[in-house]
Design brief:
This protein has about 725 residues and is α/β, with parallel strands linked by helices. The chain is built from 19 helices and 35 strands. The strands form 9 sheets. An 8-stranded parallel beta sheet has the order 7-6-3-2-1-12-9-8. Strands 13-28-29-35-31-32 form a 6-stranded antiparallel beta sheet. The structure holds zinc ion (ZN).
Length: about 725
């Protein structure tokens, strides 16, 4: 194999990893993944899992022809070690009962390679046949009373879908340092594959285990166990990376977890991963927003610091825990997830389970893959992004999500979900940044406005970074308890931004609704307060014909410098009607402070307006934040006038620029799968280029028509005549 300079650099980095023992301290050199490596440029992955019964049924040519029809660049191929799909020599790994001596894995590798498609061998190392516990009881996760764990197998005990055939393996055991490496070495020696993927491992959540090894570590619910779990995952990942790097190949495990995140700090794994492997296949919670896939790709991009995010879209039906994994999902939803991945700059990873059910019984999903991926391949150049065009940074704190104690009846994600929706409503292009980025001035300085949706937990360095950002002219919107706790969740004496905002905290947070949660009703937003408009200000100017507007359920009591804009009117009963009036309709307690300091515009909402908006959809809460966004970002680089709920993004691409629009206008956008989307009328787009280069030609990639544009200096304007589900305006230099 010829090796270019960049590949040599990769091997150099990998060699350093090879020399490391598992568990070697962080700070070791990470492998370099050159920007022009295949895995840094892949945009289309098609992946069909085989089940054990498939082993003698797979028509390899039909499978490979389908991958080729989707213009797949990469496939993930079941090698697995629950059962092997090739005649393994490793005696501990059972082969499929239907394999009958066949080398299905080898046949598939050959068929894919013949079509120029790369192969990632896929191995489910998180789970094994329970029967193996008879000869190797030490490899399996255990409950407190010593039984095999059933964690990975959903359903109630009387559910016919539950099987005791499989059981989770424990990553602290020799299974991961003995069997798994032997398995990987075997397939790497036998087959010309391009890398290895460990399905289901590492778990983003700590796997509670009471096996003998874990009992020595300590309480599996404790922080010490979490730390050990993280260290072990990183050490194993490094050892598998080193093992594959010996063959100049790549290794990746499972990541994902969406905005909420899990127990693991994925940033540490992302440093050594070739790409972010986002195994978030569909809306995993009933009530999740339609933009679930964009959120996953955005947080992955933030964690990877702009390196690739491979986001899985299931072609079968997912509705929370209700899953029909062998029949096609709603096409509008499946397509939207692929479009969302592209909007957010990700790699589309189209996924199906089973051959018999997928190539024989239900083939409807196949057309979706051919259509979307075939189209993307035709226009591939426009999906290779160099930088986003966004001047708002939405801060997502997976640490706060894990450790913050939200008021009763609310969820730690309410605020960021509400803010995300309002950014979409405002059609403002934005990037997601992590809380750790707040301590990195170089990372923040490109943004006009930082949005901190109740980012409650912060390190001192992150607070200092925010202050430096504001001192440098940056604008800011913060809500509720932002910065009130240190990184361990310990409450600070005052908000660290008191002087910056010109206010001080006067008491502990107030949250209502705690005692009013009716049984079996689920989260209750609590009794809301009201707000009284005290003076004219850009934040309140949209409210005509009223002095009172809605407030939220939770607030931090504050006092502010200068005359208030809005004041607090406390909660009072909404029944009986005769008693529905405020006994104290006018206070001097501010609910918002807003300041201008040079170019910098600062807004602090003492109430959880964003969280309250997410829970209630209350107009005034949403409008207040929209007003704040428009005041702090008076000239966004992308504006889109038109009807509907759409998500927008703009990119500097290799050929020029691209504007992506995804239509989310659907009554079920916060319920479950969309069945159809209404076609929106014209959208008028104004894009301010980051430089003054001249657009030579433009086109709409979905409509496949040329696009008339008007350019005045850096400002480019055009009209998208209609928007069905997705459109990309490609502007070329
Ligand atoms: Zn264990």
């Amino acid at each position: 194999m010829d090796m270019n300079r960049r590949e040599a650099a990769l091997i150099g980095g990998a060699a350093a990893l090879s020399a490391m023992a598992p568990g070697q301290a962080a700070g070791a050199p990470a492998p370099l993944y050159p920007a022009d490596a295949w895995h840094q440029r892949m945009k289309r992955v098609v992946h069909i899992n085989f089940n054990e019964r498939d082993a003698d049924r797979v028509d390899v040519e039909a499978w490979a022809d389908y991958l080729a029809a989707c213009r797949a660049e990469v496939t993930f191929l079941s090698g697995t070690n629950v059962v092997a799909f090739y005649p393994t020599a490793i005696k501990e790994v059972p082969v499929s009962r239907w394999l009958n001596g066949r080398d299905l894995f080898g046949e598939c590798v050959a068929a894919a390679k013949k079509r120029g498609i790369r192969v990632m061998g896929r191995f489910s190392i998180d789970i094994a046949k329970s029967a193996l516990a008879e000869t190797h009881p030490e490899w399996f996760c255990r409950t407190e009373d010593g039984k095999l764990v059933r964690r990975s197998l959903v359903g109630s005990p009387d559910d016919p879908g539950v099987s005791d055939e499989f059981a989770p393996t424990c990553q602290f055991t020799s299974y991961y340092t003995d069997v798994v490496p032997r398995l990987f070495r075997e397939v790497l020696a036998w087959y010309p594959i391009d890398g290895i993927y460990s399905n289901g491992w590492p778990s983003p959540e700590v796997v509670v285990c009471y096996c003998p090894v874990c009992r020595k570590i300590g309480d599996p619910h404790g922080e010490a166990y979490r730390d050990a779990f993280q260290k072990r995952a990183v050490a194993l990942w490094k050892s598998y990376t080193a093992l594959t790097a010996e063959k100049r190949l790549v290794f990746t495990g499972n990541l994902g977890g969406g905005f909420r995140g899990g127990d693991l700090d994925l940033a540490e794994l992302a440093e050594i991963a070739p790409w972010f492997m986002a195994d978030n296949q569909g809306r995993g919670n009933v009530g999740a927003p339609a933009w679930d896939a964009t959120q996953q790709a955005r947080i992955g991009r933030a964690i990877m610091r702009d390196r690739p995010v491979d986001a899985i879209t299931a072609s079968y039906e997912i509705s929370g825990d209700v899953r029909w994994r062998n029949v096609s999902g709603n096409p509008a939803e499946v397509k939207s997830r692929m479009h969302q991945t592209l909007l957010a700059g990700g790699t589309v990873h189209f996924h199906w389970l089973g051959f018999q059910q997928g190539f024989v019984e239900d083939r409807r999903w196949q057309a979706i893959g051919r259509e979307v991926l075939g189209w993307q391949a035709k226009h591939d150049a426009h999906f290779h992004n160099k930088a986003s065009i966004a001047d708002v940074a939405l801060v997502v704190s997976q640490r706060s999500n894990r450790l913050y104690q939200a008021p009763a009846g609310t969820d730690t994600l309410d605020a960021v979900e509400g803010m995300y929706q309002l950014l979409a409503e405002a059609r403002m292009p934005f990037d997601v940044v992590l809380e750790r980025d707040l301590a990195d001035p170089a990372r923040l300085k490109r943004y006009t406005c930082l949005v901190l949706p109740n980012v409650a937990l912060m390190r001192d360095a992150e607070i200092a970074g925010i202050k430096a950002y504001v001192a440098g002219g940056g604008s800011l919107i913060a809500t509720f308890e932002t910065g009130l706790y240190d990184e361990n969740g310990k409450e600070r004496a005052d908000t660290p931004f008191a002087a910056m905002f010109g206010m001080r905290r006067t008491g502990p947070r107030e949250a209502f609704g705690r005692g009013a949660v009716p049984p079996r009703r689920g989260p209750f937003p609590g009794s809301p307060a009201y707000q009284r408009i005290e003076r004219d200000h850009p934040l309140t100017r949209s409210f005509a014909d009223t002095r009172w507007i809605q407030g939220s359920s939770c607030r931090v009591p504050i006092a502010g410098d200068g005359p208030p804009i809005l004041t607090h009117v406390a909660q009072y009963p909404w029944y009986p009607p005769e008693g529905v009036y405020s006994r104290q309709p006018h206070t001097d307690i501010p609910t918002v402070v807003a300041r201008e300091r040079g170019r910098s515009r600062l807004v602090y909402f003492a109430e959880d307006l964003d969280g309250g908006y997410w829970r209630s959809g209350a107009n005034d809460l949403g409008d207040l934040i929209l007003n704040a966004l428009r005041w702090t970002v008076p000239e966004p680089p992308l504006t889109i006038a038109g009807e509907g709920l759409i998500e927008a993004a703009a990119w500097v691409t290799e050929p020029g620029y691209a504007v992506h629009l995804v239509n989310h206008t659907h009554a079920g956008f916060r319920a479950n799968a969309a069945r159809a989307l209404p076609t929106l009328r014209e959208q008028q787009v104004r894009l301010v280029l980051p430089d003054d280069r001249r657009i030579a030609r433009a086109s709409l990639l979905r409509a496949e028509t040329s696009l008339p544009v008007r350019q005045t200096g850096r400002v480019v304007e055009f009209t998208v005549p209609s928007l069905a589900d997705y459109e990309v305006a490609a502007l070329e230099l």
